[in-house]
């Protein structure tokens, strides 16, 4: 059978590892991620100073920490991007198992830092949020299950993946962290859709999700309070959403000027959940649009490169990682402009936070590894592998 060469790269005998890695890498995605991290440091110089002053710390304490976290994240990203899809799968499954165990033990050893949801482990010098590290591993595990289910004589991967998803969603909802639970469920639906899910089944799952939301509203005061605030026709100017909305309006097209914003002094989470409000107030709509375009570029370029991928696992895992990255950014920015209910979810690579930026680095590293141009092999070889 004639091999299709579109989207592949020729094999160069004896080519060193680093030149081959650089030649096959998605450089546009790498550049967009580096730009996002640079914007995050720029915004951190403004947004984190008030928090440092409040806590009696040096003015750029949190910026320095973010640079350290970012260095670790970029090292992880570059390291993971050099892996083969097989090694991405192996490390992803091991990482999921470790993060899942940490998530399950949160009720016993975790803390809520006074925020009403037990999501972190506190180590004194820092904290660790297992759900951030769970997501890339979850994507890889679910993609592996779906890919294995399509092999001749393969396991019932769809049922296995659904069981794992429901358990993870249950653990996250118990914290409570309904935003991360919804994101995990969305990732599973995306991977199932790409793998060939019946449309009727996805519609039924959407209906069940709505029913779950109604149940959460009736059983959780924390969840109900956020939904009521979102549905209210009036915005309390003294709430986080009120301050963020006012900051975005004040910023206009070009912003009030560097250092001229006030929302960073009013919001305790200006450097994390509402970093977009700081960007909009000081730099205006121009910077916000640039941020949106960078996230869109990462997702679009990754999905485009995956359209030429023949390996089922690589295509499913890459699609899940790209969509998870884009949807998390959409949720964070959607909350800031009151398009979505309030949800404590960071903006990848831009918001402050060690767990967030390092986990994002791992996820993007996996995505870069899966979207690298590589010889695709002949169709007969692929069919032979699936039939083993």
Overview of this protein structure:
The two termini are 19 Å apart. Strands 1-2 form a two-stranded antiparallel sheet. It is built from 17 helices and two strands. Helix content is 68%, strand content 1%. By secondary structure, it is mainly α. It has one domain (28-386).
Strand order within the widest sheet?
Answer: 1-2
What is the gyration radius calculated from CA atoms? Answer: 22 Å
User: Count the helices. How many?
Assistant: 17
H and E order = HHHHHHEEHHHHHHHHHHH
Strand residues, percent: under 5%
Domain unit count: 1
Q: Give the tally of β-strands.
A: 2
**How widely separated are the two ends?**
19 Å
Structural class: mainly alpha
Q: What integer is the average pLDDT?
A: 84
Helix content: 55-70%
Note poorly predicted spans. 1-7, 378-382
The major sheet is characterized as: 2 strands, antiparallel
* Coarse shape: globular
Layout of strands and helices, then pairs:
Blueprint: H1 17-24, H2 27-47, H3 49-54, H4 61-81, H5 85-104, H6 106-109, E1 121-122, E2 127-128, H7 130-149, H8 157-173, H9 178-195, H10 199-219, H11 221-231, H12 240-251, H13 263-266, H14 275-306, H15 312-336, H16 354-370, H17 379-386
Antiparallel strand pairs: 1-2
Helix pairs in contact: 2-4, 2-14, 4-16, 5-7, 7-8, 7-9, 7-15, 7-16, 8-9, 9-15, 10-11, 12-14, 14-15, 15-16
């Amino acid at each position: 059978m004639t091999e299709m060469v579109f989207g592949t790269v020729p094999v160069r005998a004896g080519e060193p590892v680093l030149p081959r890695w650089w030649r096959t890498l998605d450089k546009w995605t790498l550049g967009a991620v580096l730009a996002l991290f640079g914007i995050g440091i720029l915004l951190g110089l403004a947004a984190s100073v008030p928090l440092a002053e409040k806590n009696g710390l040096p003015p750029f304490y949190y910026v320095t920490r973010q640079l350290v976290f970012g260095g670790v994240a970029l090292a992880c990203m570059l390291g993971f991007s050099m892996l083969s899809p097989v090694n991405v799968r192996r490390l992803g499954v091991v990482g999921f198992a470790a993060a899942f165990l940490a998530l399950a033990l949160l009720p016993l050893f975790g803390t809520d830092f006074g925020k009403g949801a037990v999501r972190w482990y506190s180590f004194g010098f820092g904290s660790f949020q297992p759900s951030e590290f769970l997501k890339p591993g979850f994507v890889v595990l679910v993609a592996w299950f779906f890919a294995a289910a399509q092999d001749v004589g393969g396991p019932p991967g769809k049922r296995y993946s659904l069981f794992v998803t429901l358990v993870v969603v249950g653990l996250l909802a118990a914290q409570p962290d309904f935003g991360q639970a919804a994101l995990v469920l969305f990732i599973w639906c995306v991977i199932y859709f790409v793998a060939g899910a019946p449309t009727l089944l996805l519609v039924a799952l959407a209906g069940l999700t709505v029913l779950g939301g109604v149940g959460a509203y009736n059983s959780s005061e924390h969840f109900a309070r956020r939904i009521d605030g979102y549905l209210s026709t009036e915005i309390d100017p003294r709430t986080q959403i009120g301050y963020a909305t006012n900051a975005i309006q004040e910023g206009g097209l070009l912003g009030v000027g560097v250092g001229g914003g006030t929302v960073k002094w009013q919001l305790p989470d200006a450097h994390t959940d509402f970093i977009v409000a700081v960007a909009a107030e000081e730099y205006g709509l121009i910077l916000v649009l640039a941020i949106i375009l960078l996230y869109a570029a990462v997702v679009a370029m990754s999905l485009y490169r995956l359209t030429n991928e023949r390996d089922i696992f690589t295509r499913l895992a890459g699609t899940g990682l790209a969509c998870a990255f884009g949807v998390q950014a959409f949720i964070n920015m959607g909350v800031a402009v009151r398009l979505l209910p309030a949800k404590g979810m960071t903006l990848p690579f831009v918001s402050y936070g060690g767990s967030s930026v390092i986990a994002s680095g791992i996820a993007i590293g996996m995505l870069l590894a899966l979207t690298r141009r590589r010889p695709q092999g002949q169709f007969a070889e692929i069919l032979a592998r699936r039939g083993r």
